[in-house]
Structures are given as structure tokens and as C-alpha cells.
Amino acid sequence: MKEFDEFVSIMKRLRKECPWDKEQTHESLKKHFVEEAYEALDAIDRQNFDDLRSELGDVALQILFHSIIAEEEKKFTLEDVFAEINAKLIRRHPHVFGEARINSSHEQSALWDKIKMSEGRNSVLDGIPQSLPALMKAEKVQKKTAKVGFDWTKKEDVWKKVEEEMAELHDAVKKNDQDDIEKEFGDLLFSLVNYGRFINVDPEESLQSTVKKFTSRFQYIEEQLKEQGKDIHQTSFEEMDTLWDKVKKIKF
Description:
By secondary structure, the protein is an all-alpha fold. It has helices at residues 2-17, 19-23, 26-45, 49-72, 78-91, 94-97, 105-118, 134-147, 155-175, 178-198, 203-227, 237-248.
């Protein structure tokens, strides 16, 4: 593809001639990789396909950048990246490229996990990125262990676990044991993520939605106070809470 060849050519020139690009390493680019991925997700959430087109280009830039650096270090090439993903897709889809037969996406998921284990993994939990946001990581761990039967069978039992963890957190707070408080708080969050699976709630998406709702409502409070000529730093909690109750009736 002409555009892709030009893309590679541009990046290789920048790597040689641009001071900033020349200084970058795999480590220095890590935060940019994550930021670009989240910006693409944000464009999807907003259903803005002009932005999505642009953000996908930025994600592709990160992939190319890392590949060029690796090639300079004689670790691997861009061609190696594509060759490996091509082989992996074919290997993990024997029902498309081979003789295997499946009848549902559930069967495909089970087959996918079985193939990954045959590729040298020692645990069903191998391959989960440690840098994932905690809620996403918790859900992924739970889903993977559930696939091999380590799971609750009824959501009512999961909710009992949530209540148990809530009580243990409450006890830790009463004892004022900070180490225990943090442990029990984590246990409560983990159990809530587990319950979310049973009621078909994505914990990351749910919390993102709540943060978005809170942000919108708080910004309404700021706007109202500004219109009244008041400084938010000099406004009491009670006055802001009154505006909060008002905005709840008109926004979200």
C-alpha cells in the first residue's frame, strides 16, 4: 500500500533527523502508547469517526515507532511483527484455516484458551498484562479462572461475599488498622467486580460512566456559582449540595 510505505518512510526519516524522535526509547514511549489507545477508545465512546480515524493513526504510529527502534537494535523488524501476528491468527483459528469445527463463540473462546495453553503457558492466568487498570485486571482474572470451573454458580452467593467483605472492611475501619483497611478495601472491590460479572456489568465501563456523570454535575455547580458571582472556594458544602440535588433532577 502506497500510503503505508510512505508512513514507514516518514517515520524512519524522523527517527534520523528529528531531535525528539531520535531520543525516544521503548521505555520513554510507554506512556504515549497508553494515552493514544485511550484517546482511540474515547473517540469510539463519542461515536466520532473522524477522531477515531485520526486516533487509530496515532496508535499505528506507536506500533511503527517501537518496531523501528527494535530494528535499529537488531531485535526484530516490522516484517517480523506482521509475520508473527499472521501465524498466530492462523494457528488460533483452526476452525477457519484448518479442520476444527465449532458451533458458537463460547466454543471458540474455549478453543482459543486451549491453544494458548498448548503454546507453552503454565497457568490459565499467564498472559494477563500486569499494567492493566486494576478493575480490568480483576475482571480478566475472574473470567479466566471461571472458564476452568473455579467460579460461583449463583449471583446470590456472590452478593453474600460482597456483604461479608463489606463487614470486614467496616471492622478494619473500627480497629483503625490502615494495613488491614487497605487489604479489606481491595477485597471488597474484587468481590464487587465478581458480582458485576453475574449481573452483566462491566466494572470499568460502569465506573467510567459514574465519573463522567459526577464530572458533569460538578461542572454544573461551578457554572451556577459563577453565574451568581460566587467563588467556589468560599462556598459552603451545604450550598454546593443544594445545587447538587438540583442538578440531579435535570442532568443524568
